[in-house]
Write a structure and sequence with these properties.
The complex is a heterotrimer of chains A (342), B (328) and C (346). By secondary structure, chain B is α/β, with parallel strands linked by helices. Chain B has 13 helices and twelve strands. Chain B has a domain of 228 residues: P-loop containing nucleotide triphosphate hydrolases (Rossmann fold). The radius of gyration of chain B is 21 Å and the shape is globular. Chain C folds into two domains: 179 residues, P-loop containing nucleotide triphosphate hydrolases (Rossmann fold, 3-Layer(aba) Sandwich), CATH 3.40.50.300; 87 residues, no CATH class. Chain C is globular, with a radius of gyration of 21 Å. The chains are: A mainly alpha (342), B alpha/beta (328), C alpha/beta (346).
């Protein structure tokens, strides 16, 4: 009669028996003698009696699900609230930058180059004499759009391809794995120089497309791995034994249990994609002036960091806050989807 | 004549800090093992049997673990007062441990010969060649066929039973006075379990070692132990010579366990089942920890922690009503 | 024996061993199940015992159609279910359900208990009308001894024994005729094992279930089974009623297995005769010729290497009858009493 191969340690995964067990047991003890199975079954049920601390007594009971529980959890999580507010703000200024910065980001006055803050221009001027505040606000649009869309594209493509390959296995999995290997071998910067230099359009779409093209194998590999792990659990076998369809197994049983690492990698990747856009712009193959983006401003300001640090500080600060907000959001969502952490 | 006492654990308390509060894993454990004696420590998961052993060996994870009270005397010397370097010298050389999962207890990238030989290199300053020879000798001793060839193999190349033999060989390497075996056969099949237990018992007799056998299997205990200590919720609830416990348990928990196991030799009717669940270590019931599951519980059990009462015949029981329990 | 609900003939499952990444070629096979015959009567319990790697879990997975056999047939009510697919297979699944070994991995940690136990009704909507499902789930939880108020909890909020009850409730939801239980209590603590075994016995009576109870613990199997099959290296080597197998074993492997079980009685230590088998179970990729047990058998002779012993009543007992006359795949079968009688007081 082997025990489960778990280390015999105080088991923090059994908090349920702690809280209200006592009350129920006190009641049960007096009544129950050397009971049989029925008796004991009832007793064990009773010993689980304690209502969850959060549950309002007598409230009409609703059937809950992972998603509704996760949402309830998120609404109470300050990390989520703060990061969601920051992201909301970013989205608003990305759509409507003139709401808080009425100036023209392309209106520059060389006479004021590298000047510090002054009234009406709280962030000062950059090397070209443009208003840093206006440029930072207007730069949010390209940077956030590139970051979010590239991440969305990479995640969608990567997790669908990787997830399906992991789930079905076989020849397609083999082929896909080899393809991802090939993509991994392409150096990002060199690839960018080659691929993007032939494109003359000065819109964000080639950049997004390039990032998706080179980024999906990373996500696909993560998704494939976590789907393969989740697939092996007995609960997937149990669902199969019940006659569940492959789509049900994939969506109900595997996806929720495989999504956590994908979220983590995707949110971290978002920051690197915004930075990658900046790198490409710096190399002259991404966006080109007169486009406004944090990347362009950061690369333009970096040579003059000693004379005019503020011109570098503000766009890079904005970039850092954005990346942090998305990582925090990803963390909060991942935790909310794990019932064990509730 | 009582044999020389090797290990004495006195009033040991161990706590763990967890997210749900402080888990009281060990709450006042006393036991003693003499030379040539086998003490079985019996308990379910979470009873504190392994934590006690880890504290004795000095391999407890601190933090989150913490020894809050008690003494661990090895040949009269309090191990808890020693410096880590001094304890290291005792560990392996004078007391050794055998783990349940031999595959994860052995290093997968070193050959078993290297791992066995390392003991001699580290503790005895043997040369590599000498160490290799001693490793072969040890593998012979635990009856691994073709030891001289297999000494170059890696752990994964051995079967479960053979790996457990290598673990035993490793524990025996420096001929320690005391061996602590934590569920040594739980992961093995019955036929292999029988081989390994036989080997362990035989070596113990041969070397007159003290053996602390940690297990949840009442059958294994009956087969090899001299004395038994039954643990529940971090305490010893009953300790006695092994024959007496099976004849007439002096604690209702022991009785419940004995009655709840199905028997090989008869079909039997419905099994007796101890009701309820073992308590959470973060919230151990007041009074006797077993009272919520005990068919004999009365008011006093809910309020007063039972001491370890002396029971005639070199036994002890932590039950207020041990007399009634003995009478059945 | 009662009218059979499940008949298994010549069941074989080989897993090919392959090499290469894109262009695979077969280099051998793991012969996990290598010709198994079984009969399960209505409402009875068939125990299957064996050591790890003997193929008993593969048999379980084959019985519930989680795997397709390489050869052989599984007849449910006379119909071979091994070739079924789609709708027809789904219909059969309603009647053959499974309980898993590990209560920690067999429940989806991201589903509530209500969703887990109610999922069978979502997959088989015809089994219960939509409005009825929540009530049914609560009933099921009550039947297995859990508090129906806990439908919104997640698996990790329960202990191992309670999780196993949830798994049993899920298995019961569609009112199957047969439940295949693969080591359902071996991951549980001793005091909780008895609770779950008792529960399974009670449910069998209440719902008229037939169990295939697979375990390595011989005592539990004896306790719950009407008939027992002993497996070794992908085959059943001996089968009979519980008394026939435990009190009158004729196959040397069964005898060794029984004699190796530690008996919870220190008095038996002295007069217990134990058959210690040497060596390990051979690899299922490389099964010995003839009798597959011969490499560890103390009775093995030349004939054992040449001739595969059939699973039938050995000739020596055929005329005599009695409890020793049951199927045993050994050329040199003889009765040997290995289980010590328990006269433990109390």
């Amino acid at each position: 009669m082997p025990e489960p191969p778990q280390p015999e340690q105080p088991q923090p995964d059994r908090p349920h028996i702690s809280a209200g067990d006592r009350a129920a047991e006190d009641g049960a003890v007096a009544a129950t003698g050397m009971g049989g199975a029925m008796d004991l079954a009832a007793t064990e049920a009773e010993s689980l009696e304690p209502a969850q601390p959060g549950g309002a007594p007598g409230a009409p009971e609703r059937t809950r699900s992972l998603w509704s529980d996760a949402w309830r959890d998120l609404r109470r999580n300050p990390v989520f609230l703060v990061s969601a507010l920051v992201i909301l703000f970013l989205v608003v200024i990305a759509i409507w930058p003139s709401a808080i910065a009425s100036g023209n980001p392309l209106h520059c006055d060389l006479a004021k180059a590298q000047d510090g803050a002054e009234s009406g221009h709280p962030f000062g001027y950059n090397g070209q004499g443009c208003d840093v505040y206006t440029r930072t606000v207007h730069g949010a649009r390209t940077s956030v759009t590139v970051g979010v869309l590239a991440t969305a594209g990479v995640t969608l493509l990567g997790s669908v391809l990787g997830g399906l390959a992991g789930f079905f296995g076989g020849t397609w999995d083999g082929i896909l794995s080899r393809i991802t290997d090939v993509f991994f071998a392409i150096p990002v910067v060199l690839g960018g120089l080659v691929l993007l230099s032939v494109i003359t359009s000065n819109s964000i779409w080639p950049v997004i497309g390039f990032i998706v093209l080179l980024g999906w194998p990373q996500l696909s590999r993560i998704a494939r791995g976590s789907v393969i792990t989740a697939k092996q659990y007995d609960y997937v076998q149990a669902a199969r034994a019940l006659g569940a369809s492959p789509s049900r197994i994939l969506l109900r049983h595997i996806a929720p249990n495989a999504v956590a690492p994908v979220i983590v990698v995707a949110t971290i990747a978002l920051g690197t994609y915004i930075a990658l856009e900046a790198t490409l712009s710096y190399l002259g193959v991404g966006l080109k002036p007169p486009s406004v983006s944090w990347g362009i401003d950061i690369s333009a300001a970096s040579p003059y960091v000693r004379n005019a640090p503020h011109a570098l500080l503000w766009p890079s600060g904005a970039l850092a806050v954005t990346v942090l907000a998305f990582i925090m959001l990803g963390d909060a969502v991942r935790d909310a989807l794990d019932p064990k952490l509730r | 004549m009582p044999p020389e006492v090797l290990l004495e654990v006195r009033d040991l308390h161990v706590e763990f800090r967890t997210r749900d509060g402080v888990a009281h894993a060990v709450n006042g454990v006393d036991y003693a093992v003499g030379r040539g004696q086998t003490l079985a420590v019996l308990g379910e998961s979470g009873s504190g049997k392994s934590v006690t052993a880890q504290a004795v060996m000095g391999i407890l994870d601190i933090p989150p673990g913490r020894i809050t009270r008690g003494r661990i005397l090895f040949r009269g010397q309090d191990l808890l007062k020693l410096k880590e370097s001094e304890r290291r010298r005792i560990r392996g050389a004078e007391m050794a441990m055998i783990f349940q999962d031999a595959l994860s207890a052995l290093n997968p990238v070193l050959t078993v010969g290297d791992q066995l030989g390392e003991m001699f290199v580290v503790h005895r300053g043997a040369s590599r060649k000498d160490a290799r020879a001693r490793a072969v000798e040890l593998m012979d001793r635990v009856r691994i066929p073709a030891a001289a060839q297999r000494v170059r193999d890696y752990p994964h190349q051995f079967s479960g039973g053979m790996r457990q033999r290598i673990m035993i060989a490793m524990a025996l390497a420096l001929e320690p006075a005391l061996i602590i075996a934590d569920e040594p056969t739980t992961a093995l099949d019955v036929t292999v379990q029988a081989q390994v237990m036989d080997l362990l018992a035989e070596l113990q007799r041969e070397l007159t070692m003290g053996l602390v056998l940690i297990t949840h299997d009442l059958g294994v205990v009956a087969d090899v132990a001299d004395r038994i200590a039954v643990m529940y919720a971090g305490r010893i609830v009953e300790t006695a010579p092994v024959h007496d416990v099976y004849k007439a348990p002096a604690h209702p928990y022991t009785r419940g366990l004995l009655e709840s196991i199905p028997r090989l030799d008869r079909k039997g009717r419905e099994l007796y089942a101890i009701k309820g669940l073992p308590p959470s270590l973060t919230d151990i019931p007041r009074g006797c920890a077993f009272h919520p599951r005990c068919p004999m519980a009365r008011d006093v059990c809910r309020t007063d922690v039972p001491p370890l009462y002396e029971v005639p015949g070199d036994r002890r029981s932590a039950c207020h009503f041990w007399r009634e329990c003995l009478d059945g | 024996m009662a009218e059979p609900v499940l008949e298994v003939n010549g069941l074989v499952k080989h897993y090919p061993l392959t090499q290469g990444v894109l262009f695979r070629k077969q280099t051998g096979a793991v012969r996990a199940v290598d010709g198994v015959d079984l009969v399960l009567g209505r409402g009875e319990t068939l125990g299957i015992v064996g050591e790890s790697g003997c193929g008993k879990s593969t048999v379980a997975r084959l019985l519930v159609s989680l795997e397709r056999p390489t050869a052989g047939e599984i007849r449910y009510r006379g119909e071979d279910i091994t070739r079924l697919s789609g709708r027809a297979l789904k219909a059969v699944r309603r009647n053959i359900q499974m309980v898993f070994q590990d209560p920690y991995t067999s429940l989806n940690p991201r589903m509530t208990v209500g969703d887990i136990v109610g999922e069978p009704y979502e997959i088989h909507p015809e089994a219960a009308p939509k409005g009825d499902r929540r009530r049914k789930v609560r009933e099921l939880l009550e039947v297995v001894g859990l508090n129906p108020e806990h439908v919104n909890r997640y698996p990790h909020q329960f202990s191992g024994g309670q999780r196993q009850r949830i798994g049993i409730a899920r298995g019961l939801a569609l009112r199957p005729e047969i439940i295949v239980a693969d080591e359902p209590v071996s991951a549980l603590d001793v005091s909780v094992q008895a609770q779950v075994v008792n529960l399974m016995e009670r449910l069998q009576g209440e719902f008229g279930l037939a169990y295939v109870f697979i375990a390595h613990d011989l005592s539990v199997v004896r306790h719950i089974s009407d008939r027992v099959g002993v497996m070794y290296l992908g085959r059943i080597v001996e089968t009979g009623t519980d008394t026939e197998i435990y009190d009158h074993p004729t196959h040397p492997y069964t005898q060794a297995l029984l004699s190796a079980v530690p008996v919870p009685d220190p008095e038996a230590r002295a007069h217990r005769e134990r058959i210690i088998l040497y060596g390990d179970v051979p690899s299922p990729t490389d099964i010995p010729s003839g009798c597959r047990f011969r490499t560890r058998c103390w009775k093995a002779r030349e004939r054992c290497a040449l001739e595969v012993p059939a699973l039938a009543v050995p000739e020596a007992f055929r005329a005599v009858g009695g409890p020793a006359a049951h199927d045993s795949a050994c050329h040199f079968a003889e009765e040997k009493h290995v289980v010590a009688d328990g006269n433990r007081p109390g």
